[in-house]
Amino acid sequence: MAQLTGQVAFITGASSGIGEAVARRLATEGVQLMLADIDDARGEALAAELGAGYLHTDTSSLEDNEALVAATLARYGRLDLAFLNAGISSGCGIGEDFDLATYRRAMGVNLDGVVFGAHAALEALKANGGGQLIATASMAGLVAVPFDPFYAANKHAVVGLVRSLGVTLDPKDNIRANALCPSFADTNIIKPIKGFLEDTKFPILEVSDVVDAFMAIATGTGTGQCHFVVVGRPSEPFQFRNAPGPVLS
Ligand SMILES: NC(=O)c1ccc[n+]([C@@H]2O[C@H](COP(=O)([O-])OP(=O)(O)OC[C@H]3O[C@@H](n4cnc5c(N)ncnc54)[C@H](O)[C@@H]3O)[C@@H](O)[C@H]2O)c1
Questions:
Q1: 162: helix, strand or coil
Q2: What are 238-248's pLDDT values in tens digits?
Q3: For the chain, what is the mean pLDDT?
Q4: How many domains does the structure of the chain reveal?
Q5: What pLDDT, in 10s, does the model give residues 121-162?
Q6: Quick one: pLDDT band at residue 249, thresholds 50, 70, 90?
Q7: Is residue 247 part of a domain?
Q8: pLDDT value of residue 128
Q9: pLDDT of the residue at 246
C-alpha cells in the first residue's frame, strides 16, 4: 500500500460504518484525512483520534461539497482521493407510502452527493496532476431491490455515472473513477432489516471485507469499474453484458 502513504483523501459519510472503517484503514497507511459527515459529534471524535480534519458536510448541498474541497486544500494543500461514500436508505416507496420530501432527500444524499462531490473535487485532482474518485454505490446498483426501489434507482445512477466517467475523464488528467458495490454489510444502515436478513439467513458482510475491496480499488489501476463485494467470492469488477447496437466507448 506504499503508494497511498502521504496522500490526501476526503471521506463523506465518515462518522460511522464503511466511511469510518475506511478512514481508520487509510490512517494506518499514512494517508492524511479530511472527514465529512452530518453527525458532527462522532465525526469530530474520530478526527481527533486519527489526527484528521473534520467538516460538517451535507452531501446533498453543492456548497457543502465545495467547502469540503476548499477545507481539504487549506489544510493539506492537495487532494489525491475523494471517497464519495455518504448514503441513506430511501424511507419511502412508489405507492401510498410515497413522500416527495423523503424521496428528494434520498436522491439528494445518494446521487447528488456523488455528482456534487465529484464536480467539486475535479479541479483539485487535475491541479494535483491526477488522483481518484471512489463512490460507494451498492449491489443495489446492479440488481433489483424489492423493498427500496428508490435506493436501487439512485445506486444504479451512481453506477451509470462512474462507468461514464471512466470514458469521459481525459486520460491526460490521470484521474480514475470507480465504484464500490457492497452487498449488505454490518453497519447502522441495515439495522431496520438486520433481523429479517438473519431470519432468512442472508449472508451479511463484515465491514472489513468492504474496506479490503476499497483498498484494492484505491491501489489499483482500473477506471470506470464497479467492484461487487459479496460474501463468499473475491471482490472484482462486475462484467456488464454488452448492450445491443452500436456503443460509443
Ligand atoms: N451497509 C450496507 O449494507 C451497505 C451496502 C451497500 C452500500 N452501502 C452504502 O455504503 C455507504 C455508507 O453506508 P454505511 O453502510 O456505512 O451506513 P452508516 O449509516 O453506518 O453510515 C452512513 C454515514 O453517512 C452519514 N450521512 C447520512 N446522510 C448524510 C449527508 N446528507 N451528508 C453527509 N453524511 C451523511 C451518516 O451520518 C453516517 O455517518 C452508503 O452510501 C450506503 O448506501 C451500504
A1: helix
A2: 999 988 887 76
A3: 96
A4: 1
A5: 999 999 999 999 999 999 999 999 998 999 999 999 999 999
A6: low
A7: no
A8: 98
A9: 79
Taking the centre of ligand 1 as the mean of its atom positions, its distance from the CA of residue 18, in whole angstroms, is: 7
- Ligand 1 atom showing the smallest separation from residue 151 Cα: 43
> Quick check: 213 and 235 in contact, CB under 8 A?
yes
Q: CATH no. for residue 70?
A: 3.40.50.720
The Å distance, Cα 220 to ligand 1 centre, comes to: 24
The pLDDT tens digits of the residues spanning 44-77 come to 999 999 999 999 999 999 999 999 999 999 999 9
Residue nearest to atom 25 of ligand 1 (CA): 13
Distance CA 177, CA 217 (A): 10
Helices (H) and strands (E) in the chain, counts: 8, 8
Residue (of 188, 71, 87) closest to 124 by Cα position: 71
Q: Is residue 245 part of a domain?
A: no
Residue 45 falls inside a structural domain: yes
Structure-derived torsion over alpha carbons of residues 103, 146, 217, 159, reported in degrees to the nearest 10: -60
Cβ pair 17, 187 in contact under 8 A: yes
Ligand 1, atom 32, residue with closest C-alpha: 58
Calpha distance 102→104 (Å, rounded): 6
Q: What is the span of the domain harbouring residue 66?
A: 2-237
**Euclidean distance between CA atoms 31 and 182, whole angstroms:** 23
Phi, psi of 243 (to 5 degrees): -80, 150
The answer to the question of residue 248 being in a domain is no
What is the largest distance, in Å, between two alpha-carbon atoms of the chain? 53
| Binding site membership of 189 for ligand 1 (Cβ less than 6 Å) | yes
Check whether 36 has a pLDDT greater than 90: yes
Beta-bridge partners for 82: 10, 133
